[in-house]
Amino acid sequence: MLPDLRAGCSLSDSCPPKLFAEFKAKHSGHVVISYINCSAEIKALSDIICTSSNAVAIVNSVPADKKIIFAPDKNLGRYVIKKTERDMVLWDGSCMVHEIFRWKK
């Protein structure tokens, strides 16, 4: 149960399905990998759904000659790029909590 039925997810909200469909169309031929924290509509536009714990393995499972769109979390996408050295197109989405409470050195 949700304590507030109006509660949402800023990460999911950062990836509107209509805009994402247009983004995907501009990158035709790309495999779309989406992080589990996205809407059902984004999942339907995706080829593969990943979690934060399996994102690196999922990206590594895609043949090297295939181009990848990673959505909606650009921060997780950047981490996966660093770990896999794959050149991926990232959707510019993020979680406001992670943006507000960044680790500072």
Please describe what this structure looks like.
The protein is α/β, with parallel strands linked by helices and 105 residues long. It has one domain: Rossmann fold (3-Layer(aba) Sandwich). 40% of the residues lie in helices and 14% in strands. It is built from 6 helices and 4 strands, in the order H-H-E-H-E-H-E-H-E-H. It has helices at residues 10-13, 17-26, 40-44, 55-61, 74-84, 96-100, and strands at residues 31-35, 48-50, 68-71, 88-90. The protein has a 4-stranded parallel β-sheet with strand order 2-1-3-4, covered by helices on one side. Helix 4 crosses helix 5. The longest helix has 11 residues, at 74-84. The radius of gyration is 14 Å and the shape is globular. The model has no long low-confidence stretch (mean pLDDT 88).
Q: List low-pLDDT spans.
A: none
User: What is the total number of structural domains?
Assistant: 1
Helix content: 40-55%
CATH architecture: 3-Layer(aba) Sandwich
Shape: globular
Q: Outline the biggest β-sheet.
A: 4 strands, parallel
- Report the CATH superfamily: NadA-like
What integer value in Å does the Rg equal? 14 Å
SSE succession:
HHEHEHEHEH
- Oligomeric description of these chains: single chain
CATH topology type: Rossmann fold
Average pLDDT, to the nearest integer?
A: 88
* SSE-based structural type: alpha/beta
Q: Strand order of the main beta sheet, please?
A: 2-1-3-4
